[in-house]
Amino acid sequence: MFDETLLSEIPTVIMAPLPRMYHPICLIETYVDNKLRVNEDAQMILAKISQPLVVVSIVGPCRTGKSYLMNKLSRHRGASVQEEKTQSKEKAGIPSSISPFFVWAIRDFTLKSEVKGYKPTTDEHLENCEEDVATRYHKARRQNEILKLIRRYFPRQKCLFFGLPSSDKQALSRLDQVPERDLQTSFVSEAKDFCKFIYEEAPAKRLREEQIMTGSAFAQLLKSYVDVVTKGDIAHLERSMSDMSMEDNRRAMSESVALYETKMEVQQVNTEEEFQRLHEKSLEEALHEFEKKYVEHDMSQPEYLNQLKKDLLRKREEVWKILENLSWNKCEGLIQRLMCDVDQALRENKYHIPGGYKRFLKDKNNVIKRYNQEANKGVKAQEVLKDFLDSLEEIEHIILKTDQAISAKKREQPKDINPTDYSQLTKYIQSYQLPTGRFDRILIQLFGFTGHGKSSFVNSCLYILGNGRFQDKAGEGVSHGGKTMERKAYELSDAITIVDNRGFAKLGAPEAWEIYAQLCVLPFIILTKCRTESELRNTFTRMGMENIYCIENYTISDHLPVKEKHLVILNFLRDILLSVNFHLQECINFQTQQHEWTSFLKKMANESLANQT
Ligand SMILES: Nc1nc2c(ncn2[C@@H]2O[C@H](COP(=O)(O)OP(=O)(O)O)[C@@H](O)[C@H]2O)c(=O)[nH]1
Ligand SMILES: [Mg+2]
């Protein structure tokens, strides 16, 4: 449409924060072989601009002041053109169009435009101009044609008038170099108005209604245009436009994927269901985001959406893998930290003792409890815990077997304990452990008349096995009136508990047998208050009792430690443990034996009752 020589002179002013251009650069230059090409530096600068671009082309015949205007524009420090501004203008109702905005910069030296103070509209003036041209150069039809084409091609136009810059003819030929003060003030202000108009009103370049041009897109399109001009390949231009749409859609797709990723990352999920819910929500948002950005292209929106969905599903898998790994690492680290003490104990064989298995289970359960208390362990928390517990199975089994073996061995030893060495006795009783797995504790149940010294016996045992300080823990002399069945348990050691039962007012043979039947074992008899009377002892011996002990309790009023008193009670406890060991070792089928024994005792109780009546 224009003379080719004009194209080489088209200057372009780019206003964008980055990168900065300190002086104008030629955009399209003529190569040695007279072919056009896009200047590489300019192209590089453009490619770096990702913001919307305002493109200003200044065209016109030689020596009409184009360079002057261009310099003015590039030096103008007015408002910068910003995307927001363009958008708000659209909202204000200015119809957006892809056609460039055409600004006539008219040199109207005759000031015909303002006849008697009347300022014509743009259209009126343009018509005047056309008439002018027609009358003045009616033979120059080509010029006239150009004007018509321009009017048709640019639906949006603006007219700006410039008066005579200077009365000095010489100055007119080198307008760029003349200082502003030597120019007509009206011309200077007209040039300022021109710059102001461009900076404030010029819209960002658009390829389509919805497609604002960025610097990089413009550089690409420019290259295609130049190729078309040099090769005359219109199909290439169409391809290029299509490529650009595709490029935009591709970018929108990657932006959607990026949005999906951020949505998925910020959340802490602890189950696969939670993750799936999050995925669905993020997917929907990402697809919606793409729909908003889609530009018309050979490939339809549903086709793009399908492709995007596939990409997002792939992303879902990636994110899931990352979450899995994070969770694995976190949970494994956590277990390692929580297991620190247990690992140390394992290394030092601290569970390889009687009762070690029980201790190990306690420690393990404590680790599990603390693990479960920890929040935000991620999607693999349960799996890691299960793996961890599985990995412990073998060591657990070894600890159990070792414990049983050591305990069995240890139980064989008490026979060697010197019955007169009370520190040895004390140590043995305190450290006694039951074999793991079968029984929890040894219960020593006290039965007897009220006031016969059961509570005092509990106090005595606690005193002897304790820290050497006498305390009335069991309530010596406290009568419960024989009414409430109160059973109070006191721990003598890890394995032994003594139970202070309610006393009863009457204890004959039937009651005694009843008690034995309930206990399932033959009792140990304690004669308190040092009753050694042979009559009492004989009564029990006649009932088949073998273990009879004469004990003088420690009481509130008399608890000075006496070696003999200590020894009697310690030996009593030792004998109980020996009896327990005997039952554990000799009775292979303990339950059957117990059952037979109970039947026997019940029979005895019935017979005794029958004899009385
Ligand atoms: N002399 C002496 N008094 C004792 C003995 N055991 C307990 N007593 C006293 O007997 C009374 C009742 O004892 P207690 O332990 O409360 O009997 P419980 O009802 O069987 O619990 C208290 O005044 C004790 O001081 C002992 O072995 N010798
Ligand atoms: Mg009592």
TrEMBL record:
Keywords: Hydrolase. This is GB1/RHD3-type G domain-containing protein. The lineage of its organism: Eukaryota, Metazoa, Chordata, Craniata, Vertebrata. The keyword Hydrolase applies. Residues 212-416 form the Guanylate-binding protein/Atlastin C-terminal domain. InterPro entries: Guanylate-bd/ATL_C, Guanylate-bd_C_sf, Guanylate-bd_N, P-loop_NTPase. Residues 33-80, 96-205 form the Guanylate-binding protein N-terminal domain. The keyword Hydrolase applies. One of its GO terms (molecular function) is GTP binding.
